[in-house]
Batch of 3 targets.
Target 1
Amino acid sequence: MTGLPSATVATHVDVEPADLTMTFTAMASAVTLRILDPGQQAIQAMESAREMFHTIERTCTRFDPESDLMRANANARRWTRVDPSCLVVLRQAFEAYRNTAGAFDPRTLESLRLLGYDRSWELMNTHGQSVPNIKVRRRAWRPSFDDARSRVRIGPRPVDLGGIGKGFAVASAMGILAAHGRSILVEAGGDLAVRGSGPNSAGWRVQIESPFGGDRPAAVWEVTDTAVATSSIRRHHWQVGGQQAHHLIDPRTGLPAQSGLLSVTAVHPDAATAEVWTKVGFLAGRSDIRTMFDQQGIPAVWVTEDARVGYSKAAAPLLAWKASRVEPRHETSRDRNRVNG
Amino acid sequence: MKQMSSARWSAITVIAPLTAAAFAGTAWWAGAHDPREMTAEVVAVSVTDVAADQVQSVAIDSEDPQVDRMLRRAETIRAKTRRVLRKARQIDEATGTQSTAGSSSVSTGDPATGSPGTAVSQGSVGTGRGTGQAAPAPVPAPAPEPVVVPEPAPAPPADTTAGAS
């Protein structure tokens, strides 16, 4: 969750534009805020949303030992005073942990560090490390929160808020922008939220990239007032001792999940929760993912290692277009270097 | 009861249709995290904090119809909370721990007559190790038949392309 802020307002505002867009970089992602038929305070709201992104990035990053999250991780069993933004995201993570019976478990920081993902992705050495010896003693996560003093006790296993922090930022940005236009889009890497009926009044059409890259998508959603999150192991993967590693850690083993899946996309009204379900989908694995999403009633699309595209039952009404397979191909350096989450 | 002017609520009504997380995030960003401050924004946070069993009580009293909408939203969040608590209890039963849940109630005002609405929640949730027997593992449901998806025409133009993280 790093990146220098750079903001541009892409449209003129003195003629009451119908389409207002702001782009900037936060949490190692290109962030887009878009408001159709914006109100008079839309630009101020965008500035506020941008500032909020950077605040969460600053307090919840795992790449700065002085961030609120990393101070709390270092203190483990002792109370640590943190910024309210960090406290809110930690609470969201704990709620997701409980709500998924531990399938979503953010206590993956030590595994990521041992696997070499100990700095922002663009700074990472993606080759040449030895295979670490990772053993997980899995115990229930019981953090403590003190709202009145904005303090937290995380517990002995350090927490990574990368995915859920970005989902939370997207959800919160939508909250800030919601009243300032007819239709709104907030997008940050793999997390996206939409409100209203989009440019063509039929819903926002959201294209899901193939994990193999290329122009042909895996699916196209047509959605309103919801969020879409995608996790993929093709975007962030590297070599450890000659073996491929990725950032989606199985909390049961502490190792990269062996799921038979390349990407999982989930739709949920809340962006942070959508992000959580993509991770849970990965852990369910190829054999169980459809059953899991159908039981939960969650719209989802996934791509398997052999390039097949699967859908949950709840996805059907929301899909404007869908493929049964994507074209497998070797990724290009252009694909790998895309800063997208 | 805390009286609030509609001016303070004008910022809240915009987030009322959103989810609990967006609700909390927006209210937090409005600078209202401390639940001891009973401003409108703080009430928004407090409702979510009730969901996380951190707040003992929340009380709202206003004739503003926007408050009424807010309260109905609070009830939605609280219903979601109850589902989470049920789930937590199921987990506890399976793992031999115990949870206790408090109670909550919400009444909404009548926008037609302008009568005030109230939201009150009391209670706490805790977990402790119990001596109960672990529940039997659930039997997984049979997987549904795979959906056969015909190869479609080229993808239609999209408003945005979602990346991945």
Target 2
Amino acid sequence: MSQDAHAMHPETSTGLDSRKMAIWTFIGSECLFFATLISTYVVYRGKSLTGPFPHAEWTSPTGQVFEPILEIKLVTVGTALLLFSSLFVVLALYGAQHNKRGMLLGWLGATIMCGVFFVSMQVYEFTHFVHKGLKLSTNLFGASFFTLTGFHGTHVTIGVIWLFTVFLLALRRKLPPEKALNLELAALYWHFVDVVWIVIFPVVYLMD
Amino acid sequence: MSASAEQHEHEHPGPAIYLRIGLVLFILTAAEVAVYELAYHHAGSGLGALLHPIVIPILLLLSAVKFALVAMFYMHLKQDSKIFSGLFVIPIMIAAFIIAVLMTLFSYLYLLHPRPPA
Amino acid sequence: MATSALDHAPAHAHEKSGLWSWITTVDHKRIGILYGASAFIFFLLGGLEALLIRVQLANPEQHVVSPETYNQLFTMHGTTMIFLGVMPLSAMFFNYLIPIMIGARDVAFPRLNAMSYWVFLAGGLLLNASWLVHAAPDQGWFGYANLTERQYSPGPNVDFWIVGLQVLGIASLAAAVNFFVTIINLRTKGMRLMRMPMFVWMSLVTQVLLLLAFPVITVALVMLMMDRNFGTHFFIPAGGGDPILWQHLFWVFGHPEVYILILPAFGIVSEILPVFSRKPLFGYAAMVFSGCFIAFLGFGVWSHHMFSTGMGPFADTFFSLMTMLIAIPTGVKIFNWIGTIWGGRLEFKTPMLFALGFIAMFIIGGLSGVMHSSPPADLQQTDTYFVVAHFHYVLFGGSIFALTAGAYYWFPKMSGRMLDEGLGKVHFWLMMLGFNLTFFPMHFLGLNGMPRRVYTYPADLNFGFWNMMETVGAFVLMVSLLVFIYNLLRSVRHGVVAPADPWGGATLEWAIPSPPQEWNFAEIPEVSGRDPLWEWERARGGKLPEPQRVSGKGIHLPNPSYWPIVTAIGILVFFTGFIVGFPYVNIAGVLVTFIGIYSWAFEPA
């Protein structure tokens, strides 16, 4: 049985590729992972005993005034980047499936760049917050914010590494159309990471 | 073990659709930020005042639409087998239930037993 | 990247014996045996912990062990029995049976399967390594905050618990993905979902529960670890945190977990009763749907573990109603089992005895469970021995009895020899006696006020007599287990040689030699209904001929690999880093894990 036939019509009970099913199963499980982190954030919203706060000003006992700590503009750029990266990766997948190597490499490279920028934005945001006086241990907001967005950022980083691995495969001409599933699996994971951010962005940054 | 014809995957959409969806996603994100700006920083009068009481439902709705678009078109759930949709939707429903119950229990709890001041 | 699981090495080229062949095995049957052997040893360890508990409690005001040691004993007993006993014993059956029952040669991802086992072993060893530094977890298997915070648990005990459970969680999640995809995707021709053996159905539902419940405790454990090591206040009131959040998150996991513990047992019993009643399972569809309903509802009842935390009448009522509701599908199953044996030609062989014992014991456990579902009643029962009675009836009288039934039932298939029937009956009756003597009195001790998790009790409370009886019962249980171990060890070498189908079974595993050849089936079978063997025997007018062993030429099997164990070692090292407190260890673990995963992914086909 040729590789081609196997990839297009796997001989499984459902006719679906087992690896694709595995990725979706994993994604379903991860929904509960992020749901728990989001629950914790939401349940502790407004319950921090001390500042700095996400959306409100705070005057410390020593009289120091803290602005609301979240910076919407920066994060909006990051959000847009992540959204565009989902577009880019699906264009890359199209290129992979239709044997357009330039399209595949170009858009996949763009996806990875967006991911790298997003993580950089988060690293900047985190260090900036620590400078401004918000650490993990400062208050409930710090704890739940850094944990939620930190785990998301870790997922993005893993996604970048995975996509980069696929990129190298493509570069070495090891990603013909029959093997496009290898990119599709990474892309599904990537879209999931994006979709989680679609929830986190308004819940954390836009809701007071 | 044989491929079951009914589960055959349909043709995925092309770049034109992807780009259009991308544009919609961008607009929806811009809308989210605009709603936020108006409702919280211009809540005094006009559109801001109107939006302020319903800002959370609107943001949730906008993000839900973005979520659905990425899931249906970029993750190909619209064209692919319903099994994949099920693998995504059912956990989401359970997740939503758990979040809702915890929110209720923790807000309700604190109405009954208010915290002493810090 | 490597493609399909079924790669191209000829079957006979694999190394068959020796330590290395076991370390690199990707054969689901071998992995099942590894799970079973390891789990049985951990089960005995948990039993030893129980015996020490019972010795300490035999008389009032004893000091056989210190209170601190006692706390470690009951914590490790619970944690061991749940995560290192019942779950991996179930995993033994998932691994061994599922591919054969659905007519496949192996699971969807054989190397991932191997990795799950090695990660499980790593978790069990990590958890028990704590004994070596006299710092076994001592905070209860449910780890309530803020007792578990650094302030009240300064030593590494809780840290061992956290990392041990995280490692075990990884094993469970990987296996759950694997078995879910295997069952959905690798069924043979004609094996529609509603024709699968009930054990496969219950296993499928269990995998779904694993996938949805474990992530919740993963996050909760992370948050607890952050409180203990990184200064957060998730569950620390002084920093605004709420210990009740821990309870919620734990039980959102914990309640589905108990269904994870019982559903495979339900499946095993549903396989055994029909065979020894010479009748098909009564109400197959109802059994499937009730299993699914139990799992689904199981996510809506968790706060029945929290009736004494002051959630308020609305919350109490909601969770009470949901809990009462879940008794309905459970009751359906019991009636269907009774319906299965009703009017059957019963054969009281050992597997059947344990399966019948399961029904009786589980009913008792279910009755005390339903009593807990009423919040006012539960306010008296909670944190007393009444609860201890309840969960031992469902977990021991339920899960362990069923797993034992499964052991007697499938031992001939796995080893090629029969276990001794006489010894089996001795085991059964001793276990029934010992089990009921140990746990039934706990019902009245609990209602008379004996609290849980106490290392001793005053003499004037009159708890002494029944406690002594319970300790006697525990030693009777020990004897019953010694009988079993003797039976196992003797039968493996000297037992009567088993045919392919010693019991007159209905499902595919009885159509292949005992023990099976590496590739399971000489030719992949096609089925056209439930109970395929009975159908074929009916068509033939008698028993099928003994299946022949074949050479395996031309059958493709997955290659062995050492990358699963390497990856498992990487994961172990990463989590050990949290115990020793050196970030370099964590980093080393991440590197080894990455090397393991990449090498695995790019391993030649």
Target 3
Amino acid sequence: MGFPIFYLLFGYSLLFWFAQASSWNMFTGYSGYFSFGQGAFFGVGVYTTGVLAAKRGWPLIAAVPVAGILSALLGLGLGFVVFRLRKLQGEIFALVTLAVAFVVAAIARVSSKIDGGSGIALNEVKLPDFLGSFPSMMFRLGLIIAVLTVFAAATIQHSRLGWGLFSINDDEAVAEGLGVPTFRHKMMAFGISTFFAGLSGAVHAVQISYITIEDVFSIRIPLFVIVMSVLGGMRHWMGPLVGATIIHTLTDRLNRAGDLDLFGGNLTLSLSHLNDVIIGLLLIVMVLAVKDGLWPRLARRRWAALAAFVLGVVAARIWIPDMSPIAKFVVGELAAVLVLLPPPALVSRWSSRSGPPNTPADQPPEAASV
Amino acid sequence: MTLYGQAIISGVLIGGLYAMMSLGVSLSWGVLKIINLAYFSFILLAGYGSYELAATQGWDPFVTVVAVVPVAVVAGALLQLFFEKVNIGEFESLLVTFGLFIMFESVASSVWSADFRRIPSTANPYASSSLKIGGFAFATPQLSAFITAIVVGLLVKFLLDRTYFGKAVRALAQDREMARAFGVDHRRVAVLLAGLASATAAIAGVFIAMSQALFPGLAVEWFGIVFPVVILGGLGSTLGALGAGVTIGVVAAVASVTWGPSYAPLATFVILIATLLFRPEGLFTRKASV
Amino acid sequence: MTRSSRSQFPKGLILLVAFAMIAAACGSSTTDTTAGATPDTTAAAGTPDTTAASSTPDTTAAAAPSGDPIVIGSTLALTGFLAPTAAIHKVAGDLFVKQLNDNGGLLGRQVEWVVLDDESVPDTAASLYERLITEDGVDAIIGPYGTGTITAAMQVAERYGYVMPQHTGSLTYTYGYDCQFPSWPAGRNPNVTNSELLYDALESTGTPPASIAFVINQFPGTMYVAYGQPDTDEGGAVSIAEDRGYNVVLDINYPSNTTDWGPIAAQVRDADPDFLFLGALGVDGPNLIAAMDALDYQVPGMFLQWPAPGPMLGAGDSADGAMSVTAFEPHPPFTDDPGYAAIAQAFSDAATAAGLPYTAFETQASASWAAWQILVAGIEGAGSLDQAAACDYLLNNTIDTVFGPVDFDPEQNNYYGDLSYIKQIQDGDWVVVWPANGAPDGVSVQYSPEG
């Protein structure tokens, strides 16, 4: 059962986002402490590979765990200072984490031992040959890290730590009153979260191939993990996965430059510009229609969503020839999303006309806003 | 010493521009609990509007404010009305405005292409001009932005301290539910505030077009200016934004002259971290004010 | 819906997806064939047509192209901070492909150019090139715009054995891949040749500067030219200036996203150099000039590394006399060749239609053109789409480009020597001033320390 190389590469990129979004969400989504600093930890991971593997000749396999540890140390150090201070909550915490990202970037830029402004090319890095060719190797590494990250997120969610984090999310003062060791919980969760962010970044450095401060520490990664997690749903470990899948497959497939000639050539719409408009619009619609993220709704309407997905893929297969499998997947996925958009009130009103009303026990918990 | 003096002046003035750029995000996040990335787009598009009028229609760059600001105010007010209608949450606002942000970048790229757009000197004498006092030069665009920022700051201070609107804003910032209980019309206050914030963004855009070249991807580069200003100045504080902008401008300028421009960002961010550790509500806010 | 069935759902979904992914991982090792490496027997027309690599449209070979189109894939920075200049490469590439198709296509087939947006991000560029090669199965590739994305894409090209002509990579020392072909004509050591050329030009006036100030953008390429390869003893513009007896009065670097030029202008004024070497990108030039004007200060002369040429022309009187490097300018003697004159005009028209504010067919556009010429020459030379054959052909033959005939030297990372010129703003427009064989009649370097 062989898959063409491209699916390995696409699979790797999806797994990368799974790891990044899950690692971010396992702290922010559960605890409600809005971290805007994913870039710092991702960046530490990337540059650890850059410095150890590219500049100093370490094998990649050795650099990766070190990257995770360094990232976690940064996270724990930050947490140690910040979590004790009562006033550093909410928006302030977000800004602190953002500031950390800026500072890490500035230090890396100024230090010629790290980057110094020249960037680092990673073509000479010793890759683990035992994992196969490059696409296979990346896929396998990405898979391992994503699985570990998601496993951690799921385990935390259903553990005492997770319960503690959710209670902090709901009301930290009350949680402390109940005896939840809030400082310890936050430290643990943040440490694990940043560990995986760094781990995933370390492997990704090889995919980037040429790392520069501007690119690695740009607002892109922090913003995307937030978008993916909020879209998918922040209080469940499946949320970031759903969000990542939708955002990544959409942006991947919509990336086609071409021109659409309308009105007999009088108006030419450049599709490469339309891409962003489409994505922006879809994002807005999805976010507004589904308050707590897509996952809770998907969990409840799963059969309808699955049916819509299958119908979408089949319809694409029949009516649009020459569509790649991923594109067909996107059509199906959009169809499924469509099914998820109508609000529960509307759906229960419609279904109550044909049967007994849904029990309120199925309502998902409200996601607390920061 | 003139070197340091001149650098500091430059830093102070550009701080005014930074403040104008950041006010929208700061007020929106601090008072309305909306992380509005669309303000970056407003700055950019206002800049493009100014460019278009000045470069192709021959308007004086200062005068373009008259055309550009009302459009921004209306857009900002409408956007806020929309947010009120859907009762948007904080995280959601980040995503929705991010969607708007990338859409606006596309629009700019489609209309003006991705290439640099700079008002030529023949149409814009201000980029190179300055006011000279005592051997020091005060560059015109930055000086104008600084003066405007002070005026806006004083205006907002007046509004906040002396008017009902101001009290309403402060009440909302402190405790939204209580404010509503006391009859503050959240919607009206929010829309007016959004209009004001959009106006400052548009003015910032005009001054940017007056001093720099524009391209669609430029707005992303401003994140690294606006968020530090917001952090230092404290969310929701107008005078804080001004103080923060000036602080950042001056610190960067002094670092630039002492160690070289490549050290300017590091100096800025060290101040940032120090502030957050010791006075996280911002350097310039009193604890319970806007 | 019971509680237990709802909590099984995510696990079930995950297991399904995981199974699919593991199956993909296990099955993959047998399918590592590189797409496009097999010789394309339908188009093996025999003798390589070298005339197609020249400038003049070849009206004798205008047989209508037939059969499946040849697909050439690449990315470009259509969005992001590299987009302003990448826009030029899009226009140049579109024009080249159009003319190619109008003149019989490639190997008798139509050419289709697929361009994806790498958003100025090396990461994205790498994934997109892998996609173009493995999913879309493109027949050939050409490089993106910008050092970062080029360096990333090159590793992908190397992995799959694709010939990669690239136009604007500035980290010459990292490009060790045998089958990458740089079209940028500044040679393997711009850190040496660029500044030697400039200093020669200045000295040709008889009144060279005594002191030079260096203000360098912290971008890898500009840092390389100014200081040489990092972690080596190689020098760059600064050390060469010292070796040649110039007094270096200032040597500072600035972040690429600098917004406050006041302090930098103040430092330059304080140093009071006879000449300013600005390792500039984009609109750094106009920004610094405006800031210096605000201080009522002008440098007697300045050099900009890789500025966007258009905005410099609108930067006022102080920009007069500013210099930069170029490889081609749309004026004689470059346009003495009617073929290239026609191309320059066609490009100008196309750029205007695309809404670009500056439409001259100069360095960037010509480098793009040369890269396409190289690609076409390689394929036609090999007589097929076999990448190894094309690479071989390019390495062993002299290739005709807009910059003249070039020979790729594998010892020099396939660089073929320095064919660049110094250009200067005179009478409101850019014109080549040095070496003299590139300057129009009566035009020469204008510089004196008095300004």
